[in-house]
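Quick question: who can interpret this fold?

. . .
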Amino acid sequence: MANRLTQIATRTGDDGTTGLGDGQRVPKDHLRIDAMGDVDELNSHLGVLLAEPLPEAVRELLVTIQHELFNLGGELCMPGHRLLQDEAVLRLDQALAEHNAALPRLMEFILPAGTRSASLAHVARTVARRAERAVVRLAAQEAVHPAPRQYLNRLSDLLFVLARVLNRANLDGLGGDDVYWRSERLARQQAGGEHTTD
C-alpha cells in the first residue's frame, strides 16, 4: 500500500496520470478513477447534507455511511484489496427496512423536492446511482468485489427513503410531506375521491 499523503501539490499528475494505492499509475480518465471520483463526490454531498439540521438518528447513520464510503473508495484505489465488508451492506438493508416501515405507502411518483435536507438527500441519491454505474462499468473490465456495487445500490435506495423521512421531520418548516408528481391519475383521485389498490 502506498504511503499516506504528506503533501497535496505533488505535480506528479501533470502528465495526465494519477497513482493508485498499490503504486501503479493510470490515466486520469481510467474507469477506476471515474468510479473513485463518483464515490468521492457522493461522500462530499453527504458532508453538505450533514451540515443541515437533521434528526439525530439520521445524522449518526450518515456519519457511519461516510466512513464506509471512504473504505469503498479505498478498495477501488487498491485493486485486489477488500476494505468494504458484507456487514456494511447488511447495515444499509437494516436501516432501509427500519426507516421505510415508518413511512406511509407512496400514492404516486414523488419529485426530488421539499425541505433543503430532503432535496440534498435526493441529489446524493442520484450521485450514488452514477457511482454504481461507474463501478458496474469498471467491473466489466477488471475484477471488483461485489460489495461496492451492492453498497451503492442499497445506499441510493436508502437516500430516497431518508429524503421522505427528512421531509416529514420538517426541521426547516418547508416540508411535512412528499412532493408528489402531478399526474393525471393523481389529479383524478384527488378531485373525485377515486381509490386504487395497485
Remarks:
- The longest strand covers residues 17-19.
- Residues 40 and 159 are 16 Å apart (CA to CA).
- The chain has six helices and two strands.
- The beta strands are 17-19, 25-27.
